[in-house]
């Protein structure tokens, strides 16, 4: 497996040119953030990612996590790596200063997150779930709960999980059966079983704080009857020290296609008298609160798709430059050359590179918008940015993860037969990527959220605003003084037309023929991702040309930006028209057969 090197040059370009880092540092709470500080953070994160986490990626995959009589042992090197992660203050990067966090913008934390996930996805899942639990407790926990749990979770001394899924429920949370019985002291006893709990048991920290969905005895049926409870592995004494072992136990861990070093636990609550938990927020609003964690996690899983795409690209690029096979086309009698000289290998590498850069750009722009939505003094600005974030989170999650599987597969193809051999490492990226389009809601669940809650509910208002921004960029790109500009502008314009046509159909159809609308939901998500990615690539081209015209910076880097944007325009954006056709015309073929005709 090739070494991982954080793509700091591209990260910084996206943060400054597209995501508005210069504007973010002037927001309330960001006054001490400077370009020099951000550079230092990214440099140090890159060192930990490449020097500590990445070397454990392949070995962790081979060794995996081990379940032994209810306890889970992580792979060799995991505990030391986690200690370095905590000692470096990385767990507290974007957390509230009130609880020991550094309060840095989400944009900065997003770039750092990408490094962890690219270097070692299995390792990165533990802090990812902890961050979601921190977010939920910060917003909905009682003062006592915050005081007990948040300082130690923010510091990384304790980790957190989210417990939704049950064997009979899957993604249907209305079918949750775990129950919570009120006790005289105001606590609750939790009984039930949860599955697919990432890092639900491990040996990295002294305590694990589980956030658990369960039903009260008098709860209404369905999703409106679910409450959220905080259930620690070890109870916590009044002085903050650890008390008795709580009645939550890991009865097994899953044997998975990938991410072998990440323990995916089956947790049993209450097999020995009842697990002690405390209600978070109000009764019967647990699913609402869990969505706080889920949205955080969905964005983070989208970053997994981007990170694994980057890792697969780096691996394929290194192999293509090293593997000598065949002579160069058009050079009769020439010497054997590295396969990067072959046109189809070039095409595959550019496909990986351009889509990864487009996904990174969109995700970082969403992260920057999230910072504005939470920090800007103007309520109108906050509301507009939040609407944009809400629209794009299912796209960042669904589009990026679907792409990751294809991009990792392309990486294997570039390796040829050697890509199918585990020793090269290319196969691990493919195996690890496959879960990402399932995690935190499948692509269809993201797409249903997109067309229902984010488009139809508001009659496409936010989508129309985004399309307006896209058209302005297309016009600006068409005026660039280079050969790429008009090509990029034309392709983006056609993509925007397709997006507008599909969005209009779905908004109109959703209320009158919901099944037909949902047939087009995943194609719509991919369509929006492709065009939004093209939008950001066009913005990249505009920024790169500005630097070239001014004669400042790295000419080769900026020229590569223009060429990569053109590749995306010629090879990726044309898919938009086909996807729009499927959205508008795809229902009869999908719904036409009776069940017994399949």
Q: Cα-atom Rg, whole angstroms?
A: 24 Å
- Sheet of most strands: 8 strands, mixed
Strand segment count: 14
Global structural class: alpha+beta
Note the total helix count. 20
The gross shape turns out to be globular
| Uncertain stretches of 5 or more adjacent residues | none
> What share of residues is helical?
55-70%
For the termini, the CA-CA separation is 43 Å
Indicate the multimeric state. Answer: single chain
| Beta strand % | 5-15%
Mean pLDDT over the residues: 96
Report on this model:
The protein is an alpha+beta fold and 598 residues long. The chain has a domain at 443-591. 57% of the residues lie in helices and 12% in strands. The chain contains 20 helices and 14 strands. The strands form four sheets. Strands 3, 4, 5, 6, 7, 10, 11 and 12 form an eight-stranded mixed sheet that branches. Strands 1-2 form a two-stranded antiparallel ribbon. β4 and β5 (188-198) form a beta hairpin. α15 packs parallel to α19. The protein is globular, with a radius of gyration of 24 Å. It starts with 7 loop residues before the first helix and ends in a 7-residue tail after the last helix. The model has no long low-confidence stretch (mean pLDDT 96).
